[in-house]
Amino acid sequence: xxxxxxxxxxxxxxxxxxxxxxxxxxxxxxxxxxxxxxxxxxxxxxxxxxxxxxxxxxxxxxxxxxxxxxxxxxxxxxxxxxxxxxxxxxxxxxxxxxxxxxxxxxxxxxxxxxxxxxxxxxxxxxxxxxxxxxxxxxxxxxxxxxxxxxxxxxxxxxxxxxxxxxxxxxxxxxxxxxxxxxxxxxxxxxxxxxxxxxxxxxxxxxxxxxxxxxxxxxxxxxxxxxxxxxxxxxxxxxxxxxxxxxxxxx
Length: 250
Hints:
Elements: E1 4-9, H1 12-20, E2 25-28, H2 41-50, E3 54-58, H3 70-85, E4 90-93, H4 104-116, E5 122-125, H5 135-145, E6 149-152, H6 163-173, E7 178-182, H7 190-197, E8 201-204, E9 207-211, E10 216-217, E11 220-221, E12 230-234, H8 236-249
Parallel strand pairs: 1-2, 1-8, 2-3, 3-4, 4-5, 5-6, 6-7, 7-8
Antiparallel strand pairs: 9-12, 10-11
Helix pairs in contact: 1-2, 1-8, 3-4
């Protein structure tokens, strides 16, 4: 069984923490508090220079949903090319139409671009999948288009709440496309979840909070959590705990 722990990272620092914790792979973003946006090229270059991690880069030009206008889509395409040219091992993206179906033409174009940089480059459809109307139709579409993997919580807020659908998708399609379970996954629930669903790839934030006292000062605040000074980072110790549970005891 090929077990994979992927850590959701928002910076070069996060990637180094994931590396110290012996993660198998990272998904590199920026702005994780918005669900993850396209990362800086610098964070990608520094991660590839200082680690041997497989780095999947997020291509998401803005927050909110996944139905993009012409300018946003053009930005996404150029970001995909730039990140692949700077060493990304794959791209995580999600493209829907206004009705909540896979945008077939855009998704095909992105997958074709990714594969043009090498067949080993991975095309990952992210949790936009959790906003589709019909997960079975959507996964069959992605398989036909040549996607390598889907990141999903089973159309629920947390993956443990979507276990039944995830188990069914794994049983029906796991030999055709990789299913990566994410949202709320950690060292406390991963073993039971993997045993039940048969899914062998886990996506986790392994998050802790640090403080920056300049976040809120005078009458100005840039806080995005309940703590006026906090920002989230990956904790290498939480990564180690998850890796230990999955790799050593499962």
